[in-house]
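Task card 7
Instruction: Convert sequence to structure tokens.
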Amino acid sequence: MTWPVGMFWLLLAWGLLSRRPVLMDLFFATAAFGTLAVVPVDMVGGINLLPQPVCASAIVLRLALDPRGRSQAVQAMADMRRLGLLSLFLAVSVLVTVFMPRLFAGTVDVVSMTGVTEGPQPLAPGTFNLTQIAYLGLSVLTVAAFAVAAADRAMMATVGRAVLVGGATVAATGLASMLADASGMGALLEPFRTVTYVLLTEDEALGLRRLTGLMPEASAFGALCVLYGAASGLLYPCFEGTTRRFAAAIALTLFVMAALSTSSTAFVGLAVGAGLIAANWLRRLLSPASLRPTGGQIEFVVGMSLVIAALALLLVDTRLFDQAGDMIDLMLFQKVSSDSYIERMRWNDTAMDGFWATLGLGVGLGSARASNWFIALLSNTGAIGAALMLGFVAQSFMRKPPPGDPLRAEFTWAFKAVLLLALVMGALAGTSADFGVGIAAVYGMLTGLAGRRSAGGRAGWSGLRTGLRERAG
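Output:
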């Protein structure tokens, strides 16, 4: 056991025992440690258990131990206006995964989640099916946990600050990676890299080391930076004073680090994220009912100043402009001729072949790897499962908070924008039908924010209630 693994378990124990929302901060912060297996892989059948899913399990456990919270979660999952579609999606996915790999065994070739190096192989059931069922089940339960917790208005303050903690942690890991590479002391980061799958942490683009932080590859780190940067920027109006300035600094830092990852997915995410933040600024500026609408004027001045400063820097040193242009050309326009792009498109083709060969029933969770979340969803869960999940996605975008609460409206708008951004990047690099516990938190918050508050704004999650109020105050 490395010292980061031991530290993680100590923090998790503190979170489980504490009445303060330590688990929430830990949940968002541990997304940055995508190469840290917190349980020896040989002890869990070769599965790499990462910190964030383990934190999600702890949050779900806290909910399950509270009778009132457990009851609210069950009601939400049975309600078609809330999480009913998601519950049906999970049920269909499990049925498809249990039966289809056996029914269509040997009739179609697939690239399973664990079979990348082998290439296309005949469809057959495997342990990867059970693993993916467990991951998807955890993601769905995480949605339910956050939906119940978000019924408490204090949860917005808790999650808002936890997002900043997570963003700061991602930025810190990026900075640590940069310093380790620059000083030739990369071995210092080895205790954080305990997973058994292949890590692409030394790739270069145009002679520059791609920034990976503590993620397995640059594209994963770049996408994470974009999501946390956008979340910090979109939630910026919800903060005050020093916290507000800190949110702006985190957003800017993470966007720069996303660019340094030189990931094509991150580049697309940066463009979409910038557009969403600009749209949010315009919405606040034009709507007097929004939270602190006049603050949009200051944001406009600061934003324009940063743009002008960046353009001036590029004009002063034309080499920077040329290098930036070459990088964008390499990672976006020449990407289609790269070996990685060709391989990923082959995954998509093979996954869709599996969908058609099973008459649209699907090949089962984990049976087909793709490079597009929508294709993975269709191939793994079939037409029925994909329709249910996409219906839930559409339902999430249509959710509206109760009127007369600008703070709740601001959070809802921000999380919808983050969800859209995640879907865009998922369409470029999503490998599994599982949407993950990080995006599960977004779905859960949108569901909870759209519900009507109970008397006094109290939620059924009594295990966190006291800590939430302390944190919000």
